[in-house]
Amino acid sequence: MKRIRIKEEYCIGCRLCEVHCIAAHGKYKNDLIKTFKRDCNRPSPRIVIEEKEDTCFALPCRHCREAFCIRSCLTGSMTRDPETRLVHNEVERCVGCWTCIAACPYGAIVREGRHTKIAAKCDLCGQDPACVKHCPNDAIVYEEVGEDDHYDACNHR
After folding, report:
1. Binning pLDDT at 50, 70 and 90, where does residue 18 land?
2. Count of helices and strands (H, E) across the chain
3. What's the Cα-to-Cα distance from 131 to each of 21, 103, 144, rounded to whole Å?
């Protein structure tokens, strides 16, 4: 299975990953100008930059083995794909209760846009992550990981 890995030593905090994530999930699909000039309800970025002093890094969903978001979801909209092991939000079932947002220990789940009651999280852009493609320093990589390398939020591995 493939996952996003962050190399914080290369991250400069430019936030291009956030910009391209918004555009990839927006109404105008990857058109930056239209997304930021015409879309009055553009989506939230599903990856965010965390910064403190000289350190910065991108924070996407880790698709944790023991995903608190799945356990806390009241409607069952947070699910895991049995084949890819990715955690997804089935938006038609999401009621915007935000328990997944509160349960995520990494803050990787956000409210979708300004005018919705839907939770949004990294979906790896259908296995072709926009954040990875547009990171100018290769601080975000998409690579194959083994089952033992799968991140476990409960054990902070």
Report:
1. very high
2. 5, 8
3. 6, 24, 17
For residue 142, the cross-strand partners are: 4
Q: What are the strands, taking DSSP E only, across the chain? A: 2-6, 48-52, 55-59, 78-80, 87-89, 110-111, 119-120, 140-144
Structure tokens at 54: 């000289």
Q: Which domains does the chain have, with CATH numbers?
A: 2-149 (3.30.70.20)
Structure tokens at 94: 């999401």
With 0-12 / 13-18 / 19 or more C-beta atoms within 10 angstroms meaning exposed / middle / buried, residue 114 is exposed
CB 108 within 8 A of CB 122: yes
Say what the pTM is: 0.89
pLDDT at 104 over 60: yes
**Cβ atoms 1, 144 nearer than 8 A:** yes
Task: Grade residue 116 by pLDDT with cuts at 50, 70 and 90.
Answer: confident
Instruction: State residue 69 phi and psi, 5-degree precision.
Output: -65, -40
By DSSP bridging, strand 78-80 and strand 87-89 are: antiparallel
Q: What Rg do the C-alpha atoms of the chain give, in angstroms? A: 15
